[in-house]
Amino acid sequence: MSLDRPLTRNVRADRSPTDMAAYEANGGYQGLKAAVGKLSPADCLEILKDSNLRGRGGAGFPTGMKWSFVPMGDKCSPGDKYLICNADEMEPGTFKDRLLLECDPHQLIEGMIVAAYTLQANVAYIFIRAEYFKAAALLREAIAACHQKNYLGNNILGSDYSLEIHIHASAGRYICGEETALISSLEGKRANPRAKPPFPQVSGLWGRPTIVNNVETLCNVHHIIERGADWFKSLGLTEDAGTKMYGVSGRVKRPGCWELPMGTPVREILEEYAGGMADGYSLKGFLPGGGSTDFLVGEHLDLAMDYETIGKAGSRMGTGTMIILDDKTCPVGFVKNLIEFFARESCGFCTPCRDGLPWSAQVLDDIQHGRGRDEDMDTLARQVKFIGAIGNTHCALAPGAMEPLQSAMKYFPEAFEQHIQGSCRHCSGGGH
Amino acid sequence: MTETTSMQLVPTLSEEELRLIDAEIAHVPYRSAVAIDALKIVQQHRGWVSDESIKAIASYLDMSADELDGIATFYNLIFRRPVGDKVILLCNSISCWIKGCDGLQQKITEQLGVQFGETTSDNRYTLLPVTCLGACDKAPVMMVGEELHEDVAESSIVRILGGSTEP
Ligand SMILES: Cc1cc2nc3c(=O)[nH]c(=O)nc-3n(C[C@H](O)[C@H](O)[C@H](O)COP(=O)(O)O)c2cc1C
Ligand code: SF4
């Protein structure tokens, strides 16, 4: 059992799922046994806070702090509280939660039980995207196996704590991953995001205190409770604690997803794990963590992949799964694909996003197809300013969409100019 | 409707559908909260969700048909028109685009004679685009029914969709 790869210790080369027997044989459900009925919820929360665990869903918000806003004990009005696992993974270029769900479903369930115990929530949901049929089936099996062992259900392991976990398979749409839209969807409505405040921690599902966390975040929780905050902090190479599921897709030799110490340098992930660029291709830029993060370029390769460092470089670590732009792929086409994605996935609630994103896509399409004019660059810059400003839109989808666009205009202006002049070397050279 | 249905509350939903919807209702505070689950249950049994089904589900969940239709049409995997026996979900998000999903789309169109949003005339397949399928290391990918196909080459489209030829 390797301690420095807690999240993937049960992941096999053939990616076959780990069942209850194999999970327990490898030390599984020890975190549950250490926590439920043994430690107080307040003690668990203290450990979580000390650990510096930050949410792995994209924003990197400190998990312990987020949980501390949930009213506890007498401070909570009578009624249920809810824990929701966000397994909606649809961010373009993100493929880490699928691996955790399909290879080790019990790990998520154990993490959720310890998390729900800490929050004293008696009902939890896994909101899983419709297309993850296999993962949903494995999770149902895992939940049933837990009921047999009394790891779920009434009075877990003889304690006075009870928990049910329900699975909600979604019906599509990227916006469901935004946590307040997810709550709307779980209530059976259109997945429109909600105004904050009130924050879900106080008024979420059915108006009750609710915590939404990413799959990878929750998979860490019981390991931290079992092994302690100091152990977790010691896993990271930089200030940010723990390990991280990093991924690389695009034209590299070995695209894939690996659990590595938090803060592993970009170059190491790209060259040692992904095997470097595919033959005949070189690196032009990369999105560090999914489709709504700003481009970084060659000069950033020696940066540590963590929230702080990538943030300071003008981007975001996001989901930690990089998308590589190679020298034979047109940056304009690349960004247009992303903007079209976000335009299609807009929930339609607010105007800058609903009408602005299709406009951006149209301008990019004009540029790509030789109909561009010089003033189009000003139009795009204005769109970036208005659509990208936090506060101009109801949720973060639209500002996120502007991140790859604004940074492509900054780092690859020549690609736009060449297109406007009708001579893009990528598009005439048989590439995209 | 052929039989006399005045005694039945919801004439167009089957016993089995009602049983599954009731199981969902059991753990939510109000009936309309299971709208999406109910739409999925009916779609699973009938392939798609007709106007009749919308009315029947809405009345069973104490909501208006318009409200339910507003929900149904929001979600791209609730089908308000008939679809083929299998739905092809072709990922056209960024990692698959880099690896040539446009070529796959062309190939599928050649093979089946359908564009995005269309169903083959033999009713075997409906072709739809889908958001990033979370398998970017195996790009390009697509789903056919519930099955994920990874590292799909243009040359393997014929094998994957074997048999069906159009026009
Ligand atoms: C448009 C949009 C889509 C999102 N999609 C996801 C998603 O699929 N999975 C996820 O965990 N978080 C997603 N998020 C982030 C969630 O809103 C939320 O921050 C996250 O689930 C919190 O979990 P964490 O604190 O564990 O990171 C999305 C955010 C936005 C704005
Ligand atoms: S920014 Fe877009 S996705 Fe978010 S609420 Fe507005 S329209 Fe909906």
Automatic annotation (TrEMBL), chain A:
Keywords: 4Fe-4S, Flavoprotein, FMN, Iron, Iron-sulfur, Metal-binding, NAD, Oxidoreductase, Quinone, Translocase. Signal peptide: none annotated. It is an enzyme of class 7 (translocase). Gene3D superfamilies: 3.10.20.600, 6.10.250.1450, NADH-ubiquinone oxidoreductase 51kDa subunit, NADH-ubiquinone oxidoreductase 51kDa subunit, iron-sulphur binding domain. Its cofactor is FMN; [4Fe-4S] cluster. Transmembrane segments: none annotated. InterPro entries: NADH-UbQ_OxRdtase_51kDa_CS, NADH-UbQ_OxRdtase_suF, Nuo51_FMN-bd, Nuo51_FMN-bd_sf, Nuop51_4Fe4S-bd, Nuop51_4Fe4S-bd_sf, Soluble_ligand-bd. Its EC number is 7.1.1.-. It comes from the Bacteria. Composed of 13 different subunits. Subunits NuoCD, E, F, and G constitute the peripheral sector of the complex. NDH-1 shuttles electrons from NADH, via FMN and iron-sulfur (Fe-S) centers, to quinones in the respiratory chain. Belongs to the complex I 51 kDa subunit family. This is NADH-quinone oxidoreductase subunit F.
From TrEMBL, chain B:
Pfam families: 2Fe-2S_thioredx. SUPFAM superfamilies: Thioredoxin-like. The keyword Metal-binding applies. Its cofactor is [2Fe-2S] cluster. Binds 1 [2Fe-2S] cluster. Coiled coil: none annotated. One of its GO terms (molecular function) is NADH dehydrogenase activity. Composed of 13 different subunits. Subunits NuoCD, E, F, and G constitute the peripheral sector of the complex. This is NADH-quinone oxidoreductase subunit E. It comes from Seongchinamella unica.
